[in-house]
């Protein structure tokens, strides 16, 4: 999606996320939009059976996320979420990985207790 649909879709996603978390809580990566780095988990690579190669490829994404200093990295798809979370665990990252849908559910007050297990304590207790 990052390259296929380009900057207009990236802008739409930023609009939605900023509306849910507040613009003051949004931290963008650099580079970003259609020039952003791939996480390295898509195209079946997440399930390929080569975790060290995948993590090595994804290290540039890990370093990009770390450089933001953000507490959370919001991901739009399952493969990105699994890869970005794994990179954080493997390289001892200082961020939590969260699905975009989780943020939207939190904003609407409909995220169940059992859906909060991977959130940091600051978000896990919201809306209960």
List keywords for this structure.
single chain, mainly alpha, two-stranded parallel ribbon, 6% strand, globular
Explain the overall architecture.
The chain is built from five helices and two strands. It is mostly helical and 128 residues long. It has one domain (7-124). The protein has a two-stranded parallel sheet with strand order 1-2. Helix 2 (51-68) crosses helix 3. The longest helix has 18 residues, at 51-68. It is globular, with a radius of gyration of 15 Å.
Strand order of the largest sheet: 1-2
Number of helices: 5
Order of helices and strands: HHEHEHH
Number of domains: 1
Low-confidence stretches: none
The Cα radius of gyration reads 15 Å
Outline type: globular
Mean pLDDT: 92
Q: How many β strands by DSSP?
A: 2
The SS-based structural class is mainly alpha
Strand content: 5-15%
How far apart the termini lie comes to: 34 Å
Helix residue percentage: 40-55%
Largest sheet: 2 strands, parallel
Topology, please?
Layout (H helix, E strand, L loop, with lengths): L6 H15 L29 H18 L3 E4 L2 H13 L5 E4 H9 L12 H4 L4
Parallel strand pairs: 1-2
Helix pairs in contact: 2-3
Short account of what is shown:
The chain is mainly α and 128 residues long. It has five helices and two strands. It has a two-stranded parallel ribbon with strand order 1-2.
